[in-house]
Amino acid sequence: MDVTHFAAAASPPPAPAGKKSVQLVEFTAMHGVRYSVTLGYLKATAMADPVIDAAYDFRINVREQSGGEQAMTALLDSWDEPFVVGLTVYFWNRAQSLELARLVKERWPACRVVIGGNDVSHQQDPLFAEAPWVDVLVHGEGELRFRDLLHRFLADGDLATIPGISHWSDGAVVTNADADRITDLDQIVSPILTPVYSDEEITGSSMIVYETNRGCPYKCSFCYWGGATNSKVRQFDLDRIFAELDRLIRLMPTDATLFIADANFGILARDRQIAERIVELSRRYDKRMLVSTNWAKNGNERIVQIASMLHEAELTGAITLSAQSFDANVLKIANRANIRTDHYRRLLSRFRELDIPTYTDLIWGLPGESYTTYLDGIEEVLTAGGSPVIYPLLLLNNTDYSRESFQDEHKLATRWMPCDITNPELVADVVIGHSAMTAEEWVRGMEFRVAMTLFQKILLRCSLRVLHATTGVRLVELCRELWTFLLDDCADPFLRAIARNIGATYREPADLDMALLRRVIGDQIVVPEEMHFQALLCRIIGTERATTDLLRAAVDRLCDRLTDAGHRIDRTLLDGALALDFAATTILRGILRKDVQEAEFAVPRSAWDLLVDAGDVPSGLDVSGQDHTVHGTVWSPDRWLDYPISVYALAIWHGTGRPLHDLLFDLPDRAGAVA
Questions:
Q1: Res 671: pLDDT
Q2: Residue 131 CB partners (closer than 8 Å, separation 6+)
Q3: Among 254, 293, 311, 600, which is 20 to 30 Å from 400 by CA?
Q4: pLDDT at residue number 354
Q5: Residue 664: pLDDT over 80
Q6: CA angle 266, 271, 277 (to 5 degrees)
Q7: 461-471 and 544-564 are packed helices; what angle lies between their axes, rounded to 10 degrees?
Q8: Residue 146: CA atoms inside 13 Å, Cβ hemisphere, count?
Q9: In DSSP terms, which residues pair with 86 in a beta bridge?
Q10: 170-197 as b/e: b if 16+ CB within 10 A
Q11: pLDDT tens, position by position, 123-151
């Protein structure tokens, strides 16, 4: 396969004379993404047909969601009259996609508008009622269906014989027979090994979404991927994969993300070969990048081997461990009981032994999950040294949870609202109540995500670990007490106001106080995600004095409450842990100020060993030359200073950033040598 060079001009040339224009569109929620694997497949598979290639001119349009109607109008103004417009629709871009389709029909009534994607497949009745200007809805895999449609459009022919579509016919919506799944993925032509994307387009994209297989053997009720399909895993040819990866890795920009969009990477034996090739190519082309994926749900030693390989090559951050819940009844309702939690615990232990960071996906709002079992699951992760990343439950089309009978049985209550309350563009049907969870408990659970991330992952991680180990009080209870302190008793009125606005906004999204957040964080926000959390963090770590005052007051509050409850506090151990917590904030302050920050610490050896065993402090540091107290200095590495604080804060939120692990340590032994 020749993958040497597919160059393109700086601006696209006009459509060749006599060719009909096909505009393919995807709105993305990701900043800097210019590559769409979905649109690439559609174009490459269609162009492989000589008749279609001779008749049509294809253009791919990947656009960020921001910009509103003005951006849509500018996009339409850049087109000559299109013959076909195709859009790929997900829950996050549904509104923009259907509005663009309406504007297309308003401007060019004869244009054929075709849509497909997970959010609209098999949703013909509500879709055509909502958007009657759409001509054709493609269900499931669209590459072959779209090619067949283009043939029919050329001849202005009848669509009745094309399987897997819904369309207008004589004023009524007609749904044809289902199409078979594509069993031979070689029928889908590579957009990477054909001149679909130029070198410049790949180099200009901050993320490349990439498939090595399709299908998922699981049937999780909340997931469209397996829940709606329960399909056998189908594989792309391995030689094709190696050739595609060669071109992609050679061209990808520095620090871009290669997202392997398989449902269960590591489930197949050949996935190790794919990982080995990625490592080899990154070295060959001297390419620094991030490899991200959905790891296999039932973990095995192969996952550990692959993750270790990528981690050693500095190609991956934290490894995802998908638990979603630890309650047996919740997992049974979710049809996830066959994904064993003991695999999770074993994998987490193995990764900790190898000092490879992990994060654990949990979903708040699963049917059957109470506020109590929710906290129990988080405690399970925290005490094991894991990093919980908690998402609200979204009611996705074509899942078991979306069935009316299921919703009635579990008394599901939903609200159409931003799934990230501070990002109004990410609107979804969010589950806010059910028979085991009240709406107010849901709000408390959403607040807890912020409290746990702020205090346990960042500001007081070491102190909380020592208090938990010496008193037996659960980490989640300590975090809840700290949240009460922040809401009611901390001295900073801005912190109190931000914390209170979180619950208020989840109760009523219109109460979001964006002016308050902007006043606190100014222009520090680069990524508009979890902005309450970002504002709290920036306020607390803005100055060394602000950090010290807040953390000392918070720890004193915990000690008072624990002492009142009859617990004995070892202040020597606790103060040593607090010194490490102060030190951990230097990397955040360094990023915020764009200069190197440093701090000294002294920690009792017993506390140090406890924190190493729990994974809170890096395990590879040599303290053999030190006696009963571990002394040292930390400072923020230069390489982090180029990162916006917004990016690093969200890296911590999502489990890939770990302040104490990302700092540089100087641990001199008693003779003065550096350990």
A1: 44
A2: 98, 101, 102
A3: 293
A4: 84
A5: yes
A6: 135
A7: 10
A8: 32
A9: 24, 114
A10: eeebeebeebeebeebeebbbbbbbebb
A11: 999 999 999 999 999 999 999 999 999 99
Contact present, 501 and 513 (Cβ < 8 Å): yes
Own/partner pairs, 559-562, CB within 8 angstroms, 24+ separation: 561/481, 562/467, 562/471, 562/473
Measured between alpha carbons, how far is 267 from 80 in angstroms, rounded to an integer?
A: 46
Q: Which amino acid is at 380?
A: E
Task: Provide the token pair at 143.
Answer: 């590459």
Question: What does the block give as tokens for 346?
Answer: 């074993």
Cα→Cα distances 416→200, 296, 391, 400, 608, Å: 39, 31, 16, 19, 47
End-to-end CA distance of the chain: 51
Buried b (16+ CB within 10 A) or exposed e, 572-605: ebbbbbbbbbbbbbbbbbbbbeeeebebebebbe
Helices (H), 252-389: 271-284, 301-312, 328-333, 341-353, 371-383
Residue with tokens 């009859």: 566
**DSSP-H helix ranges across 156-300:** 199-203, 224-227, 238-251, 271-284
Answer yes or no: are the C-beta atoms of 632 and 600 closer than 8 Å.
yes
Residue type, 661: H
Query: Measured between alpha carbons, how far is 64 from 612 in angstroms, rounded to an integer?
Result: 42
Helix/strand number for the chain, H first, E second: 26, 20
Q: Is the dihedral of CA 100, 225, 146, 41 positive or negative?
A: positive
Given CA atoms 566, 572, 578, 580 in this order, what sign does their dihedral have? negative
Please answer whether residues 429 and 416 qualify as being in contact, where contact means their C-beta atoms are separated by less than 8 angstroms: yes
**pLDDT value of residue 218:** 83
**Pair 236, 380: CB distance under 8 Å:** no
